[in-house]
Write a structure and sequence with these properties.
The chain is an alpha+beta fold. The protein has helices at 10-20, 32-39, 55-62, 67-75, 102-113, 125-137, 141-152, 186-196, 215-218, 221-224, 231-246, 251-255, 267-280, 322-329, 389-402, 415-423; strands at 7-8, 42-43, 81-86, 89-94, 200-206, 209-214, 248-250, 283-288, 295-298, 308-311, 350-356, 358-368, 373-381, 407-410. The strands form 4 sheets. The protein has a 5-stranded mixed β-sheet with strand order 10-11-12-13-14. It has a 4-stranded mixed β-sheet with strand order 1-8-9-7. The protein has a 3-stranded antiparallel β-sheet with strand order 2-4-3. Helix 7 (141-152) packs across helix 8 (186-196) and helix 11 packs across helix 13.
Amino acid sequence: MVAVGDEVSTEVARRIALGAQGFGEARRRPDVRWAIRQAGVLQLDSVNVLCRSHYLPVYARVGDYPRTTLDELSWGPERELFEYFWGHKAALIPLENYPLLRWRMRAAERQVWDEELSPDVTAPWSVVAGMRRLTAERPGYVDQVLRLVTERGPLTAGEASPDGVRRKRSDPDPDPGTGTMWNWQDAKIAIEYLFCTGQVTIAGRRHFERIYDLTSRVLPADMLDAPEPTAAEARRELVRIAARGLGIATLRELCGGTGQAHFPLPAATGREVVAELVEAGDLVPVRVEGVKQQSYRWHEAVDRPVDACALLSPFDPLIWNRDRTHRLFDFFYRISIYTPAPQRVHGYYVLPFLLGDGLVARVDLKSDRQTSTLVVPTLTPEPDSPDFIEPLATELRQLAAWLGLDHIRVTAASPAAKALVRSL
């Protein structure tokens, strides 16, 4: 048992982190709901070169499961998850946490009109900048969009335009940050504002495109009518959830105002919340080997042997904080999907391979759906990694079967890749 002020080795901290995320049980619990609770949140991403990212953390924890199960939990009539922003990430979040985020919805509304920007930064800058322009140029436009959703919803952003006017990609982008590459039309800005402020929510997905409807028509009435905690109460509970999911972390990793914090808060607020959780006994201050900053262990987190075997999505909650991943696993990892091809080192969609309690290789993967083939374009072992070829071959066979792919093709030419071909 780790006591207050104890020094924790990197190895112990790593095992605590893995156990907190559900990797200590080596897929002995094929329960989708359990896996979601352990992960805490499922980040959404549009890249589909292998598989939609939100399916992969559940698979990493429980193995084979029907993806339709997660679809039903996320967007079905008896949904147990809802879409919102976890930190700055679009994510699927357990429905019971909806009341905890209502203060953020109101903060998002204030933020749009706050020239100084609220310290509780909640809405994407594309929404803030776009709404400021729309308010000046097209007063009443957001109300028109809301009325259209009310009368005709559910609708996609493209269907939510009251007048059908669309900016061309060749037009100058009037809102730095909205990004014409993402085709953020005025209707998209308006409906995303309504989403950030909780007036509409995501009713479903069509070819992964968001379908919006009134929140009152999508989420259960008992959840919408549930007593709302104060902002202070909500922040404490959200940091508790972060701490439970991380197992052991610094204040910056728990709630620092960065894109890699589990749940970002203004610096002073974050320090205050963490101090309150230490006083309550929920967080135990410890020192982690090699880490200058104070760390905190979730009071129920334990150090157990970890015998994991999983390919991790680039957006898995275990590794989405790249600096923490580097510190705990000695694994410098950056996603490459936005890196120009000549500058990529390890491939395009690179999944770290978790074996035991270490990240032992980087596996670039692609689903060639036309030929029903799981393709391995690049395979890079970590320095001094243990032998991982046989476990990886088994994992790839299982992954291909789960994805409904009939073949595996290794196009990588490294020595490890040649060994993988022989094993397969």
